[in-house]
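User: Structure with zinc ion, tokens only please.
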Amino acid sequence: MRCKVCLHPKRSEIERQIAARTMNTVEAAKIIGCSNSTVSRHMRQCVAPNVRDRLQAEAKEFQSVNLLGQLDKSHDVLLQIRDAALSEGRDRVALKAIEVEIKQFELAAKLTGQLNEAPQVNFLLSPEYMQLKQVIIKALEPYPKARQQAARALREVNDESLDQ
Ligand SMILES: [Zn+2]
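Assistant:
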């Protein structure tokens, strides 16, 4: 038997939004003109499990792509801040930017699934991170003080991870 949600013309759009958690069952119930529990029952019983899984996977992928785009933008801003700070001799600001940059790399790696797919790999011991550290230290060559501080901060990041 088909319920009121099944018969609604916007059924698939509503299902997608609920799966993506951009809409809750209360809001959906209001749109459809039924009770909250009818929507919940529909999601549980009428939407086949495989469809539900696919909708959720799509929603997750969409969200991570979105986040990566945002991350990209914030990385551009960060690079501008870092370069400006370096050229003006504001070592502390530059250093802070580099710390944030490392966090951004970690987040990007998580989002693209590199860390999830290989949980046994410690990011801080990965060749990419080693290379990144070298790039940072090299980039800071003209700024000995910042370079020293960056080297110390990078060491601390490593120590912290070993403590965990
Ligand atoms: Zn239904």
